Amino acid sequence: MEGKESGQNPYPGNYPRYEEDEINLIDCLRVLWKWKWLITVGTLVCAIIAAVISFQMPRIYKISTVIEPGIAGIKADGGFMYIDSAANINGKIDEGIYNRKVEEALQLDPLKTRVEFKSTVLKKSNAIKITSQWQEGDTDLGVRVARQMIGLLSPLCQDRCRLN
Fold first, then answer.
1. From CA 85, how far away is CA 76, in angstroms rounded?
2. pLDDT: is 92 or 157 the higher one?
3. Whose CA is closest to 147, among 98, 87, 89?
4. Which residues have C-beta within 8 Å of that of residue 98, sequence separation ≥ 6?
5. Are 135 and 68 in contact (CB under 8 A)?
6. pLDDT at 24 over 90
7. Nearest-angstrom CA–CA distance, 58 and 48
8. DSSP sequence for 41-99
9. Which end of the chain has fewer CB atoms surrounding its CB within 10 Å, N or C?
10. Other CB atoms closer than 10 Å to residue 132's CB: what's the count?
């Protein structure tokens, strides 16, 4: 028992000594139990507000299609030579190159009806997924817009464009 004094820390290193000012789990549970009604009512009020806002929001529908660039020929190594690259078509769609053309073809007012497409090149393929979002009631217009977009892209796709 040499070297140990009564006030010395029995733990090695810089560990602090046990003090009585630590918080016990039972104390936390007592506080939560004391305020249980406020916690319950607050949670219910937040849930009701979220439900009311959610039901008042318009429903949004997504219209999508997948296209694949047309094949112009076969390379010497046996790979396909495409009319245009999927990355190039994807870039044009994301930049909105075709949006105005679709609006003009369908005689849409750009201030009232906004045509907007988003596209992604599908992994491990040469296909592009094109999507547009429409509110409930405008889905028929959304289908017409998607078909017009397919019509604009069809020279690049050689009948590989289909609406999903």
1. 18
2. 92
3. 98
4. 92, 117, 149, 152, 153
5. no
6. no
7. 18
8. HHHHHHHHHHHHHHHHSPPEEEEEEEE-PPEEEE-TTS-EEESS-HHHHHHHHHTTTTH
9. N
10. 22
The structure tokens 């016990």 sit at 24
SS3 148: helix
Q: How far apart are CA 108 and CA 114, in angstroms?
A: 9
The confidence score (pLDDT) of residue 43 equals 97
In 3-state terms, the chain is what percent helix, strand and coil (to 5)?
A: 40, 20, 40
Helix 25-34 / helix 36-56 crossing angle, nearest 10 deg:
60
Q: At 33, is the pLDDT very low, low, confident or very high (cuts 50, 70, 90)?
A: very high
Structure pTM?
A: 0.61
Amino acid, res. 109: D
Q: What is the pLDDT of residues 121-161, one digit of tens each?
A: 998 888 899 999 998 888 888 899 998 988 888 876 654 45
Is 50 or 65 the better-scoring residue by pLDDT?
50
Cα distance from N-terminal residue to C-terminal residue, the chain: 82
Q: How far apart are CA 151 and CA 90, in angstroms?
A: 16
